[in-house]
Amino acid sequence: MTTKLFERLVTKFSIKVNDLAKYLEISKATIYNYRNLERFSDIPSDKQYKIFYLFGKETEEELELVLDESDNDTLAKYVNRISSILKGSVQENVGSIASIEELSGTVERLKQENSALQRQLVWLQKFSGMDEFTKSVVLDKVASIVNGVSNVEIKEFIDYLNIFEIYKANGKR
Predict the structure, then answer these.
(1) What does the CA dihedral 44, 10, 91, 84 come to, rounded to 10 degrees?
(2) Which residue, among 27, 36, 32, 83, has the nearest Cα to 55 in the 3D structure?
(3) Residue 43 to residues 56, 64, 163: CA-CA distances in angstroms?
(4) What is the largest CA-CA distance in the chain?
(5) Mind giving me the DSSP string for the chain?
(6) What is the mean pLDDT of residues 18-46?
(7) If I label 60, which of 16, 142, 163, 170 is the partner at 20 to 30 A Cα–Cα?
């Protein structure tokens, strides 16, 4: 076998290191290491299979024959196949990144919703000593008072409630 088969294939077909690294799911540095290997068989077998698939071959000997190919139409077919496979691999990675970003956004939104629901639960637990009818009347009345009012008016309403709370506490003494 001729030495540095992988290096010669990458060079002959001008395969971009970035695209090849994404396709093989390895780092660019590993690609450079593979290119320096004397024997193709030193590449891990799972990566060898992907390289075979990239060229539509099943053995190292068939890859050697690809290097000897000089017919322009046949070479163009190899280039088209390689481009198509590598492009598909890159698009899959872009799609994965997009879905990861989408999931991250969904997680963030759900965290905010969870936080808001926890605050509402704390507020509702303050009504735990009341019967359901009284709770609904009080909440309905508060909602009708504050619905559509300004922040200043809400502040006044809260001040009135604080005054009532002080009055109620003093009346119980």
Answers:
(1) -110
(2) 83
(3) 18, 16, 80
(4) 104
(5) --S-HHHHHHHHTT--HHHHHHHHTS-HHHHHHHHH-S-GGGS-HHHHHHHHHHHT-SSHHHHHHHHH---HHHHHHHHHHHHHHHHHHHHHHHHHHHHHHHHHHHHHHHHHHHHHHHHHHHHHHTTTTS-HHHHHHHHHHHHHHHTT--HHHHHHHHHHHHHHHHHHHHHT-
(6) 90
(7) 16
pTM of the model: 0.48
pLDDT digits (tens, 9 = 90+) for 82-117: 888 888 765 565 556 567 777 788 888 899 999 989
> Cα(37)–Cα(43) distance, rounded to whole angstroms?
8
pLDDT tens digits, residue range 34-62?
999 999 999 999 999 999 988 888 999 99
Q: Are 57 and 9 in contact (CB under 8 A)?
A: no
pLDDT value at residue 91: 59
142 and 154 Cβ atoms separated by less than 8 Å: no
Q: Structural domain boundaries of the chain?
A: 5-92, 128-173
